[in-house]
Fold this sequence. Notes:
This protein is α/β, with parallel strands linked by helices. It is about 50% helix and about 15% strand. It contains 30 helices and 23 strands.
Amino acid sequence: MRLACLSLAWVFGVYLASALPLSRGLLVGGASFLLVGILFPRRRVLLLGLFCLLVFGGGLLRAACLPGPGELALYNGRVVELIGVIDSEPDVRTRFTLFRFKVQELQDELGRRAVSDACLLYAPRFPSDPELSKMRDFPFYRYGDRLWIKGKLVEPPELEEFDYREYLARQGIYSLCYPKDVGLIGEGEGSPILRLTFSLKEKLSRALALAVAEPSSSLAQAMLLGKRSELPKEIREDFQLSGIAHILAISGLHISIVAGMSLSLGAWLFGRHRPYYLLLALLAVWFYALLTGWHPSALRAAIMGSLWAVGSWLGRQRNSFVALLLAAAVMVGIKPSVLKDVSFQLSFAAMAGLIFLSPLFASWAYRALGDEGKIGGGWRFIIESFSFSLGAILATLPLLAFYFHRISLVTLPATFFALPAVPGLIAAAAFSSGLGLISSALAQIPGWICWLFGTYIIRVAEAFSSLPFAAISARVGVAFLAGYYSLLALAFFLVRNWRSIKRGTLGRRPSLKALPRVARGFSSKYVILFLLLVALLLWSAVLALPDGKLHVFFLNVGQGDAILVQTPSRHQILIDGGPDPKVLLSQLGQRLPFWDHSLDLVILTHPEEDHLTGLPEVLRRYRVEKVLESGFPSDSPTYQDWVRLIEQKGIKRLTAQQGQQIRLGEVRVEVLHPAESLLHGTSSDSSNNSVVLRLSHGKISFLLVGDLMREGEEALLRQQPELGSTVLKVGHHGAAGSSSPEFLEAVSPQAAVISVGSNNPFGHPSLEVMARLRERVGQNLFLTSRDGTVEFITDGQKLWVKKER
Length: 805
C-alpha cells in the first residue's frame, strides 16, 4: 500500500506540472498533506503523507525541468543544410522513410554553426544519391547513419482528428524536414546495442516476409515485431471497426508468451532451484521490449513482469495493482510526457480493467453456473475469455471514444473469437523468423502455421467489421470521462463492499468506527448531489445523440446569416457565421453535443462581414474537415484571416460551382449558383455571386440563397428554372431588392425564413418583400429577430417547426 501511495504521488506530481505552474502545484501538494493530517491524525499516516509530499514535489520538479522547443524551431519555414545522425529505427512508408534526425550542424545564408537538436525527417523512399542505392539493399537508411541533407524545415501541423504537433512535441520534436537532397557521410554511429537490435529486427522481418504469405506476413510482423506500417490499410480498418485493434499492440499477452517460453527454457537448462531461469526470463522480456521499440504497453508489461519475477525470487507477496502503479511511476519518471500518450493511457486502463473488473465478472459467472469446482474446462475457457475481454473493454471504451471518436459494438464477440489464435500466431511467427535466420527452408513449416493463424484472425476481423452495426461514431469530452470513471469506481466499490455496507447501514454500523471523527460527519447528501450531477451529464449526452431526422437551424445571430445543419447520418454543416463570433459560438454551443467540437463542412456564401465574421473563430475552436466558398475575392482583413487559418490548419478548400453535389447519407446538397463565370457589374457583385444551395431530404427541400439580389435571382432563373423548394431562406435579409415576384413564383415555398437583426440600420426586412412573402406562405413566415432561432425538423416526408420564442 505504501508503494502504491508513493507511485500515485509521483505520477500526480508530474501530471500537475503540465497543468499548473510550479508554485500552484506545490500549493496543491501542501494543501493535500494538510487535509490528510486533519482527516487521519495518526503518526504512521502523517509519516507516509510526508514521504508522498516529497515524492509529489519530485514529480513536479521532474516535469518542470523538461526542455521546450530547441534551436531548430527558430528556422522553421527556411531552407537549410543539416548534418546529423539517424537517431531512431527508420519507418519505411509508401513514399517516405521517416526517422528522428539528431542534428549536429546547421548551415544557412549566415554560415555554419553547431547545434544540438532533433527533427523528424521525411526522406524520399529512394535516396537521391545513386551511390547509396548501389551500396545498400532496401531499406537504404539505417540507424546510426551520418547524413548531409538540404531541405526546408516546417512546423508540425495540427491534423483534423489528431494533434500531430503536440504528439511530436512530447518526443522533443518541433520541426519537420522534407529534404530535396540526402547524402551519406558515414555510418556506425549511435548505440552499438541499438544498431544490433534494429539489424536483428530487420532480419527477422525479412525472414517472416519470405516464410509467410501475405497478408498474414504483415500481420505477423505487426504482432511479433511491432511493425504496423506494413499492414494494409484495409486490414487496419477492419481491425478498428471490429474492435480488435488492441491485439496488434505489443502488450502483456506478448510479453507473457515470451516470458513463458524463456522460463520453460531456463528451467530445462538450469532447473528451478537456482534463480538463473528467472534471470533468463528477465533478459528475454527486456530484449523483446527493446526489439519492439519500447512501446508503452510493452514497457509496462516488461516492468510488471520483472516485478513478478523479483517477487517470486524473494518470496514476497505480489500485488498486481501495486505493480501497475509502480510501472506507471517508472515510465513517467523516464519520460514525463508519456502521461499524455494515448497508448500509455489505453494500456494502463485495460490493465486496471483486467485487475479489478474481470475477476468480478468471472465470479458472477461461476456463481450463476453453480459450483465452480464442477465447471468443465470448456466453460472455464469461455468464462475467463469473456471476463477478461469485458473488463478491458469497459475500462477503455470512453478513452477510445474520446480520442478516436468511434467505438466498436462488436469488440466483445470479435475479441472472443480472435484472441485464442493470437498465442499460436506469435509463437509460430517467433519460430519461423528464428529459423529463417538459419535457413529459409526450415522456416517454411512454422510459417505455414503462422499463415493459418493469421488468416483466421483476419477473417474474424473482416466478418465482424462488415456488420452494419459494427461501429458507431461517439464523441465525448473530459466531463464524460470523469463521470464515467467515477461511476465505474463507485459501482465497483459498492459491489465489492456491499455486505459490509449493508451491515453498516442496517446493523450497528461498525465500519463507521474506523473513520476519523471529521469523516463521520460527512453527509450523504453530498454523495447524492455528486451522483445527480453525473447522471445529468450522462443524460445530457444521451439526449444530444442524433434522432435519425434532418435538423436545420436558422440561428439568431443578429443582422447576419448563420445556418446549422445536422443530418440523420450525424454530419454537421455550418453555412455562414454571422457578424459576431461570441454570438455564433454561443448558438453552436447550445445546439451541438457538449462533447462535440467538429464540423464536416463550413460554407461561406460570400465574403461580407455579416456572413463571415464569426467563421474564423469557428476554425480556431472546431475541427473542420472542409470549407466551401463562392470564389469571389476579397481583401478584407477578416477574409484574409479566414484564408490564413484554412491554410494553417490544412483544411480542404473547395470552390462552389454550379452543378456540384455533396451526398451526406440520405441528404443531398446541390450547388445551384454561381456559374463558372461570375457576375460582374451588378449592384453588388459579392452578394449576387453568393453560393446558392438546395438541401434535399426525401420530399422536403430547403433553398438557401445567401444575399442574392434581383440580378442574381434573374441569373439563377435563367440557369436553373426548376427551383421549387419547401422552405426558402430569404435573400439579403429581406431587402427591397430581393425576392422578386418571378423568383417567388419559381420557388413556390411553403415556408420562409428571414435572418435579420432587430432594429437594424438598414430597415430590413422591406415591407414590400414581407407582403409578397405573406401572400405566398401565410403564417409560415419566420423572422429570427422576432422568433429567435428557428429549427426545421424533417424525416423526409413531414416537416416540423420549432421557434425559440
